[in-house]
From TrEMBL:
Record-linked InterPro entries: AAA+_ATPase (IPR003593), ABC_transporter-like_ATP-bd (IPR003439), P-loop_NTPase (IPR027417)
Domain ABC transporter as annotated: residue spans: 22-259
Name this polypeptide is given: ABC transporter ATP-binding protein
Keywords: ATP-binding, Cell inner membrane, Cell membrane, Membrane, Nucleotide-binding, Transport
Matching Pfam families: ABC_tran
One MF term in the entry's GO annotations: ATP binding
Length: 295
């Protein structure tokens, strides 16, 4: 789907990679005797799209919740925009929250609020904003995510899955954040809606110069969007690198995830110069229902 915004940013360069906006250093997180993270390190720089992958229960959501300050580390430090989360005051924390947007997989929208009120909610939380200004802000965001303004008065139940994600994204960017967290933004969508959401994330990344932290199981989305992929395994970040480099790491999760048939098929979407850097095992034919091979 082409939108005015997509056309406008098509020829823009990707945002430049800048200073670290998230610095996780020597993080340990325990729940009772369950050690989820141990000596975990991860830096994310301005302008990047970093995808966090790992098996179920590897600690992806727990890591994101700690970065957002919703959960406290057992030890180690997390800095966001250069501020140590352990020592930052309540007012600075509130300001930092306004510089970040979030799209959670579950409970993405309030079912009892219209599309307009869902998108307006983070603005209203900040304080009183004149009605006409609020309307302009919300309508601009609807347009940015490619939804006609006639949808503003609808309830979430009347929307398709793809539209719900768009509204969730409009709400996540309503305060024009620098940093956007997306938890499974394409989960439950049909392939076409998935592609449209991936396209939209890429457009917003360019248009707003966003830094994006993405948690996803969707290999196609991961390959299409990531500047780097961070693999969570053995309680730490095993590697955080471009996907063609990650695919060559000798690790059971990496082999299964990236070099299985679905992984190999997804990696075919990389541009030739990046495909050339893939390990040989990733280049084996990816036959299957879509591959047209002998199976
Ligand atoms: N609030 C909590 N209390 C106790 N254990 C938790 C809590 N949140 C997560 N865990 C545990 O932490 C581990 C990692 O969970 P999670 O971060 O949700 O994994 P992922 O998102 O990678 O699937 C799991 O073993 C889970 O049971
Ligand atoms: Mg999770």
């Amino acid at each position: 789907m082409s939108t005015p915004l997509k056309e406008a940013v098509r020829d823009l360069p990707l945002p430049a990679i800048g200073e670290p906006v998230i610095e996780v250093h020597n993080l340990t997180k325990r729940y009772g005797r369950n050690i989820v993270h141990q000596h975990l390190n991860l830096d994310i720089r301005r302008g990047e799209i970093v995808t966090i992958v790992g098996g179920s229960g590897a600690g992806k959501t727990t890591l994101v919740r700690q970065i957002l300050g919703l959960e406290k580390p057992s030890s180690g430090s997390i800095r966001m925009f250069g501020e140590d989360l352990a020592t930052v005051g309540a007012e600075d924390m509130r300001l930092m929250r306004t510089r970040t947007g979030m799209l959670f997989q579950h409970g993405a929208l309030f079912s009892s609020l219209t599309v307009f009120d869902n998108i307006a909610q983070p603005v209203r939380e900040l304080g009183k904003v004149p009605a006409d200004l609020l309307r302009d802000i919300v309508m601009l965001k609807l347009e940015m995510v490619g939804l006609p303004c006639k949808h503003a008065s609808k309830m979430p139940a009347a929307l398709s899955g793809g539209m719900v994600k768009r509204v969730g994204l409009a709400r996540a960017i309503v305060l024009e954040p620098e940093l956007l967290f997306l938890d499974e933004p394409t989960a439950g969508l049909d392939p076409r809606s998935s592609d449209e959401v991936v396209d939209l994330i890429s457009t917003l990344h360019r248009a707003l110069g966003l830094t994006v932290v993405l948690v996803t199981h969707d290999l196609d989305a991961m390959v299409a969007l990531s500047t780097r992929v961070a693999v969570l395994a053995e309680r730490r970040v095993l590697i955080a690198a471009p996907v063609e480099e990650v695919a060559g790491v000798d690790d059971p999760f990496v082999r299964e995830y990236f070099l299985g048939m679905r992984g190999r098929r997804a990696l075919q979407a990389l541009p030739p110069e990046r495909r050339a850097k893939l390990p040989r095992a990733a280049l084996a034919p990816a036959f299957g229902s879509m591959g047209g091979g002998p199976c």
